[in-house]
Amino acid sequence: MSKVLKYVIANWKMHGRHVFVKDWCEQMPDHWSPNVKVVVAPPYAYIPALKALASKALSLGSQDVSIFKEDGAHTGDLSAAMLEDIGCEYVIIGHSERRALGETDAQLKSKLENVKVAGLTPVFCVGESLQVRQGGRAWDFVAAQLELIADYPKDLPLIIAYEPIWAIGTGETASVEDVEHMHGLILGRMSRPVLYGGSVKASNAKELMGAQGVSGALVGGASLKPLEFFTIVDAAS
Ligand code: PGA
Questions:
Q1: Quick one: residue 161, left, alpha or beta (phi over 0 = left, psi -120 to 50 = alpha)?
Q2: Cβ count near 25 (within 10 Å)
Q3: Closest Cα partner for 89 from 43, 58, 111?
């Protein structure tokens, strides 16, 4: 019986240099378990270097994408078509660190549309702040965020990442009970792989990824330490 596919997605955020990419790739195993899909989203500038150095077992992702679909006078932007052209397959959309910079629902909609047209897979991030959770409104908040993908075509791949904001980069993780509860609610609304993100590390990866309704992890800080990241990949299989 084949096992359920798990995703482990590395989000390097604004970290790395060529020497880092090279070192990271040198420590990478030649292959993983076929049950695990490993994706790395480096800063845009290092996507080609990662593509050149990484083994074929790894898929490339992007941390964001332009709201504009067509080429044009959009200084500083990178389109979904360009990401597809350079070998990306996955695009993180709506990460809380980008939402915090003022990303609007209309912009998120455009990004989802552009990624869809380019044939890439969105990794759509949702998650509540500590204040919202303590106010007992975590699910209402996440449910509202999910509205943006409610009409995304069911036959096209889309991954959801549940990342409680208070757990990102803080060393705090949601309890397995909280994760299972939230993932259950999300899965009750839509049938998509739901990853957990927020201080996933080698020491808690097995427990979190083994939780009910969890299809893998979106990993920030720990993905910068290659051996720790590969231990997380192993924990997914
Ligand atoms: P973290 O980041 O693993 O460093 O908490 C996760 C994320 O922001 O995707």
A1: beta
A2: 17
A3: 58
Q: What's the sign of the alpha-carbon dihedral 125, 162, 96, 141?
A: positive
Helix pair 138-146, 176-189: axis angle to 10 deg: 40
Question: Which uninterrupted H or E stretch holds 83?
Answer: helix 80-85
Distance 141 CA to ligand 1 centre (A): 20
Per-residue b/e over 107-128, b at no fewer than 16 CB within 10 Å?
A: bbbbbbebbbebebbbbbbbbb
Backbone angles phi, psi at 206, to 5 degrees: -65, -45
Q: Which pLDDT tens digits describe the chain residue by residue (237 residues)?
A: 445 589 999 999 999 999 999 999 999 998 889 999 999 999 999 999 999 999 888 999 999 999 999 999 999 999 999 999 999 999 999 999 999 999 999 999 999 999 999 999 999 999 999 999 999 999 999 999 999 999 999 999 999 999 999 999 888 888 999 999 999 999 999 999 999 999 999 999 999 999 999 999 999 999 999 999 999 999 998
Stated pTM of the model: 0.96
Residues with beta carbon inside 6 Å of ligand 1?
A: 11, 163, 168-169, 197-200, 218-222
Q: Which of 4, 21, 18 is nearest to 223 (CA)?
A: 21
How far apart are the C-alpha atoms of 186 and 194, rounded to whole Å? 8
Active-site amino acid positions:
95, 163
Residue to mutate, 7, 39, 168, ligand 1, most ligand atoms under 8 Å from C-beta: 168
